[in-house]
Design brief:
Blueprint (H helix, E strand, L loop, with lengths): L1 H16 L9 E6 L6 H9 L4 E8 L3 H10 L6 E6 L4 H5 L4 E4 L15 H18 L4 E4 L4 H14 L8 E3 L2 H15 L10 E3 L6 E3 L14 H12 L1 H9 L7 H18 L5 E8 L8 E9 L2 E5 L7 H28 L1
Parallel strand pairs: 1-2, 1-4, 2-3, 4-5, 5-6
Antiparallel strand pairs: 7-8, 9-10, 10-11
Helix pairs in contact: 2-3, 2-10, 5-6, 6-11, 7-8
This protein binds 1,4-dihydronicotinamide adenine dinucleotide.
The site of 1,4-dihydronicotinamide adenine dinucleotide (NAI) has 32 residues, from helix 5.
């Protein structure tokens, strides 16, 4: 046994130096709402994530077991199990490093994300309370809308349980970043995989603020005022574009699953010790007075959000957009706080 311990000690520094070491760790990840439109493809994508060793698929409907059986046949190392109903929720959450939450109802045509508040607020409150109890150290990725309110609700629940760490709570706004990359590269050229466009603020209508002036690489000829206006409008209304196209059958699910899986992978890369993992997320922030939570570029690391990065230099139109979004975002955050304080 002494020889084994000596060998392990000898190998340890090599493992740390090994560039492929990132793929040696394995994390336990739960999806809450796994039987839904987002949850199913998200579960599939997470099953293929090389950093996931144990995948827990939970939903209130029994279909969770079927989704887990289906996804479990995909050949990857992630052990996959389904859990259904509140009595099995603690089993799903036990030992989780990351919990991704797409549980709740989606929009129908004519609805705003805020119209979902009455149903989804309670769902997020209860699920986060279960996380606080069973896996208080897990990173939480909240997808359920309205994100501008559900993340503050989650924060209050965690505070009430005495386990709040702002570095471990993130609202997922990565779909806004994906849309910006797609729409801008389609209209101005550039590679949608590598183009970098900050999208800050919140995750609803005008609170979504793409900073096109910071696009890297910056397109030749730049953006005319009209181009910037039209692209900003399309990025802000990308979700509604999908809701209308699905004509009552739901909101973005496939693109959202891709966004959530990519974002979760980045979170796990950070937890795994990879340096300089940069993403955008809706997190506790001091960037904008009046907004206790704000989406901006963040650096992810072993503890979750290692650093909230600044907004950089805004164009006049972007500065006006920031000023315009602040009252709405601030009100949505307050609505979340008020709901949580009144109901926990
Ligand atoms: P869906 O209705 O297809 O699926 C939701 C799933 O949640 C269902 O399987 C349902 O059984 C489950 N569920 C409901 N209450 C639950 C609870 N208490 N515990 C566990 N599971 C529960 O809806 P979809 O399309 O998957 O959307 C889910 C949420 O994601 C919606 O709130 C939607 O607005 C939001 N969304 C967020 C986006 C973002 O960018 N952050 C983008 C698109 C949608």
């Amino acid at each position: 046994n002494r020889r084994v311990a000596k060998l392990a000690a000898h190998l340890q520094p090599q493992i740390r130096r090994d560039p492929t070491a990132a793929h040696k760790a394995g994390f336990t990840v739960a999806v809450l709402g796994a039987a839904g439109g987002i949850g199913q493809p998200l579960s599939l994508l997470l099953k293929r994530c090389p950093l996931v060793a144990d995948l827990r698929l939970y939903d209130v409907v029994p279909l969770a077991a079927g989704v887990a059986a289906d996804v479990s046949h995909v050949n990857s190392r992630a052990d996959t199990r389904g859990f259904h109903g509140p009595s099995q929720l603690p089993l799903a959450l036990e030992g989780c490093d990351l919990v991704v939450i797409p549980a709740g109802v989606p929009r129908k045509p004519g609805m705003t994300r805020d119209d979902l508040f009455n149903i989804n607020a309670g769902i997020v409150r209860d699920l986060v309370a279960a996380c606080a109890k069973t896996c208080p150290n897990a990173v939480l990725n909240v997808i359920s809308n309205p994100v501008n309110s559900t993340v503050p609700i989650a924060a209050e629940v965690l505070k009430d349980a005495g386990v709040y760490d702002p570095r471990r709570l993130m609202g997922v706004t990565h779909l806004d970043v994906m849309r910006a990359r797609t729409f801008v590269s389609r209209s101005k050229g550039g590679d949608p995989n590598t183009i970098d466009i900050p999208v800050v603020g919140g995750h609803a209508g005008v609170t979504i603020l793409p900073l096109l002036s910071q696009t890297r690489p910056f397109p030749k000829g730049g953006f005319t005022a009209e181009e910037a206006r039209a692209l900003t409008h399309r990025i802000q209304n990308g979700g509604t574009e999908v809701v209308d196209a699905k004509a009552g059958a739901g909101s973005a699910t496939l693109s959202m699953a891709a966004a959530a899986a990519e974002f979760a992978h980045s979170v796990l890369r950070g937890l795994n010790g990879e340096r300089n993992v940069l993403e955008h997320a809706f997190v506790e922030s001091r960037l904008v007075p009046g907004c206790a939570f704000f989406a901006s570029k963040v650096r992810l690391g072993r503890v979750g959000v290692e650093k909230v990065l600044g907004l950089g230099k805004l164009s006049d139109a972007e500065a006006a957009g920031l000023k315009a979004l602040t009252p709405e975002l601030s009100a949505s955050i307050r609505k979340g706080f008020d709901f949580a304080r009144a109901s926990i």
